[in-house]
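Q: I'm teaching a short session on how sequence maps to structure, and I want students to see two examples side by side rather than one. Could you give me a first protein with its sequence written out and its structure tokens following it? Keep the formatting plain so it prints cleanly on a handout.
A: Of course. Example one:
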Amino acid sequence: VAMADVAASKLAEGTRVAMADVAALEAEIDRLHAYCERHGLNSRGVSDIVGREFALPVDAEHKATVLQVTTAAQPHMRAFHLAWLGFFSTFFSTFAPAPLMPYIKPALGISKREAAVAGMASVGSTIFFRLIMGLVADTIGARRGMAACLLVTTLPILGMMYVQDATGFIVCRGLIGISLASFVACQAWVSVMFSKPIVGLANATAGGWGNLGGGITNLAMPFVFLAVRDSFAPGDDDAAWRLCFWLPALLHFGTGLATLTGRDLPDGNVDELELSGAKQKSRSDVVLKVGFSNLNGWLLCVLYGMSFGVELTVTNEAATYFFEYHGLSVKLAGALASCFGLMNLFARSLGGIASDWLGKRFGMPGRIWSLWISQALEGVFCCLLGLTTSGMALEEIPASNTAGRCVLLLSVFSIFVQMAEGGTYAIVPQVSRSALGVVSGIVGAGGNLGSVVTTAAFFASSDARTDDSFIKMGLAIVASSCLCALLYWPDEGGALLGPRALGRFNPQLVLPPEGYGGADVIDLSGFAKGAPATARSTVLSTVKLSESVSTASEYESSADAENGDGSKESAVAPAATQPCKLCSAELRSVLSSDAVEQALKGLALSPAELRHEDALDALRLESPGLSTDELRRRAMSAGGATDRSALELV
């Protein structure tokens, strides 16, 4: 009895030492993974549900946790780059006529009123189609919606080459403007690819780089016109501006085809996932009712109308403003006007970064305050831009040398416009996951509607001065920013209200049916049994090594469980386990030599133990990067554990 007590004591002490070693190794491995993931490396080797390893580190829902713009790897960064490039193409084509208006207006006999109507048509025609695109994104995927939008609207771009009067010009601009519905696809696609802590930055960057098309088209089209005229139509301005539209048409067609190479969701395309049972089939009636009944969505719709809508209006007006008011050449006026759009290169991302930063510290109230401040400052600088020349007679403005000051104010004004846009779409993914596409469509449609309203209210009148119109629009922007005070989430509160401050009130007036998931929710419990084992063991959550000891024993006991029909099914590694590339050559140097030794011992099994096929199969699942021969060699060189604890530890 005494000897047994001594043996038990030594065994308990050995167990405590072993667990302490496991805990130390576990902590070091966690630090290694954290370092690798911060630098964009999927060090855990996480794969999608059919075994394709992700290029970026992902969260439990397989959404990327970093934004690595230097790669276009499937699926996350491929979707990101195709999303912003598709939106960029539509923005470029929609506003391509604006810097060419000094040539188009006399050729077609377009009046100022007709030019304003054409501008409103270019941004107003897409309002309904943005709502439709939201439904498309929730049901069949944003990728296919983006591709269809680009390819179909290639035709009216080509039609612009053959218009003969103002009516034809207005119709073509309206049809081309439908393509701006791609913005909803852009934001919905990016939202399902990136995790909550960085979705604000990802959405803002994709939207900002897409909006950059407005600045690039103002900058590039006058030079394209000059090059075409000199090369293909010497002395014929009318033929030259028509031939310029080959460029946006080719951009649409090429980007539309490229978009089809992307992936709808991190784990695959919508139809494939629904067929396999991994994704719940979306119901259009549910997403419409849920999306249209969320009050926060409608408030953001108005707010976005006074940021993105203002951007569209200014993009249509800026080149003409510098040409007519400051007496600049068409080429120089287009270049200066492009400064407004070029701020999208970084400013919209700033709005997303600010929202994410404040959101991490203060939750949803922080995101709301970020939007409120950005939008209020947007209105202030819009007023300052108008005040620069509003007191001067029109004939005095060219000699006043205020063009430089106006460009500076226009640029700062643009920075806050873009930041407000980025801040808005940093909040949109938090509104309703069940109807993300529809809410994105509502808010996006509000942006275009805002442009129609601001153009009609401030710029359409034939006797309205553009600088005075800037002042009036700026005051309207400041007033509308106060709507941020009404945004409210029951569990997080709002800018001025705390959580549950309004009792049982919920801005989501119609709740989704119980158990209804969002368009991006993957459910492995419904995944087809015919999927490969490596797919069924895909990691959805991470557990610590010490926790996996108890999990593994439960898994072992159920390995030979009988099915209802009396047959046996070989066990699949539990979803809680996760392959770890501890033994890859490039990572060994990061760990200490002692940690590597412990890791190899954790993999060790004696040759006798390896004769158990179920043990060998389980070990293969846990370490898919190692061959059977390599597993046997390491087991023998490490001393050969003789019990099953080593397998359980792995």
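Q: Perfect. Now a second example for contrast.
A: Example two:
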Amino acid sequence: QRIGIEVPESAKMVLLQEEKFKSYFNQLLFVLKEYDRVLGRVIPVIRPLLKPHLDDLDKKIQPGMLMLTWQSMNIDGYLHRMHTWLSKFEELVNKINDLIENRVESNLKAISKTLLVDIQSDSTFTLEQFVNMQEKVTKRKTLMMDAKNLEVERAVEDLINVVLSFPMEDFGSASISEETVQKLRDHYSRLMYLAILNTTKNSFHTLKKRLTARTSTGGVVQADKPFFDVNVELSLPNVTMNPSLEEIQAAINRCAINVLRCSKRICQWGQDREQDIARLQTFHSLIAQDREIVKVVLLLTGSVEGTKKQVHDYLLTFMGYEHLWKMDKQAEYKKFMATEPDLEAFDNELKKYVEMEANIQSIPAVHNIGCMCLETTPVKASLRSEAIAWKSQYSKNLHSQARDEMHSLQDMMKDTLQKLDRPLTDLDDVRDVMAVLKFIREKESQIDYMLVPIEEKYHLLSKNGVHVDKEEFDDLNHLRESWKKVRSQAMVVSDKLGGLQAGFKSTLTENVKVFVKDASEFRDDFIANGPMVQGVPPMDAAERLTKYRRLFEERQRKWDSYCEGEDLFGLPITQYPELEACKKELELLDKLYGLYVNVVQTIKGYGDMMWSDVVAQIETMTETATGFQALCKRMPKQLRDWEAYGELKKTIDEFFEVLPLLQQCSQKSMRPRHWESIMQVTGKKIPMEEAGPSVETCKLMHVLDLGMVAFAEDVEDIAGGSAKELGIETKLNQIIEAW
């Protein structure tokens, strides 16, 4: 109007409604932005499921795009309806997103991040601890994963129900094809499979990494703390691991199988969970077919194979001590003692085992190989025990030798002191004390040679760590003091002897005179009444020999005592020819009558033998008789004229003559008729029964009493005939049997 241009009415009308149109424009623009915002929140995988709702929303937008103009009267109503529809749709989207975020994706992530093994990088385990712990962890995690799997499955079903049940203004509720619904289920079932697959892979990789892990710090490659505690033990005849490599590998395999079997307890979707799980399909078949899973499982089944050579080489280092348990301690010690070792040789042996014990002790308590921490404490204890046993073998015997020598020396000193303390009452006491003083003088020059070796042996034992009781060391320290006491006492006794010498010398002279007379009388009595008297039966002579031998022994003691006394006081040694003659004769008589008595008693003992046992003893009796005959022949010539010698020889010869007859009569061919013939020839009887000589009552003495030697030819004929008759009888029986 200011420039003179006419404004159309329509423009004026628009100008008047400027604020209104701008408001509509802004509101419509906001609605479109809200539409885009809400649609942007729809998860792509859910979009097919929301297609009816999206189509319905598009239909509600269509009027604004096709029918409404700026002059339409229902723009406000349209805007109100659009806000309402978008708000309801956003509510549906919020519910869906909440379900997916909180019940689906969070559980899928939880499953995907779950480890089916409990692997700690700063801890080690025994094999039993590892197996038990992994089984518990796997079981617990499997139950948790199956619960989350079921929760996700139910969440997806709830999501579908939410979409299907969400009201639509024109159609009541949405109509969605089963194919679309199933695609959504398959999508999230696939995600569940991938989550389980991922946790299985991660578990395997974590286990594999822990078993073979290495870390690098400052350019230095360092191993993580080993996984398994393994004892190195001495299992004769080898050094072994406990548990063994095979047992460790079996435990790892068992753990891997348990991880793989987890998916056997996680059911696939769309099945009735009330059924037994063995009838349900699980994710196991899908997981087990994955190539990467198979590859990792194969790697785990040989995870400790690479350490086998290292372990073998390490265990071989302990075989340097194998002689400790393979060699015989007693045999080696005998060889050692056969070399007549000196103290230096003992010292070398003990030092060798002391050094060996120190070397064993210096072995590191642990040695790491791969995933294993080898504990050497058990094998060190065993090796040390073996080394101590070897050391003890030498030290024990050396200790015993030193102790015995010390005790022997102590006993010698104690015995010497006791002898020196005896009262000097007679000549025997003086003689004994003089002998002790002489013994002390001889030992005086030897005592150092006796004490020093003992002291050196105890020093050697102490130096090599052998336990010796304090009492023994005290006894050792007192040895020299004890010898000083012996010497001091010897000087006292020697002085005392000097004062008593005159009285004992006078007594000795008187006793010798009396003993000379007694020796002459003993000789006269021996000649008149002893075993050499003519006509005395041999057995009586043997009894007399025993009597006079005892009487002579009494005089022999006095004889020795008086001679020693005369020597002690420097007197002439008195001779006793009567006793010397008796001594020679008694020695000869003892040989003769000793053999005579032995022969008589032996033959008498044979006589008490049952006749049934004679056959088995014939050879023994023959050997015994041969021995007697040889001893008889070796008798001195001067004895052969004595009556006892003749009786002895006759007895032995008669026994030799009867032995062949006894052997013939003991043949199996002898029948009762043959024994009757022998008894008829000799004119004497023996106890008989139907089969021959009585088994219970007939003894060898009965057969000897037959006097068969006098009828030797007749007895030989009868016994020989019995053998021939037995031969004929045997042949007849063979002919009869043949016929």
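Q: What should students look for in example two?
A: Point them to this: The radius of gyration is 61 Å. Also worth mentioning: Residues 28 and 79 are 7 Å apart (CA to CA).
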